[in-house]
Amino acid sequence: MSRLRQPKVGCAWDIKQDFSSLIPYLIEEAYEVVDAIDRNDYDDLRSELGDLLLQVVFHSQIAKERDLFTFEQVAESICDKLVRRHPHIFGDTVFTSDAQRHNAWEQSKADERLEKHSSASDSRSVLSGVASNLPALIECEKIQDRAAHHGFDWPDVPPVFDKVLEELAEVKEAWESGDQEHIQEEIGDLLLVAVNLARHLKVSPEVALRQSTKKFTKRFNYIELKVELSGRELKDCTLNELDALWHEAKIVLRNGNTV
Question: How large is the average pLDDT for residues 25-44?
Answer without folding.
Answer: 94
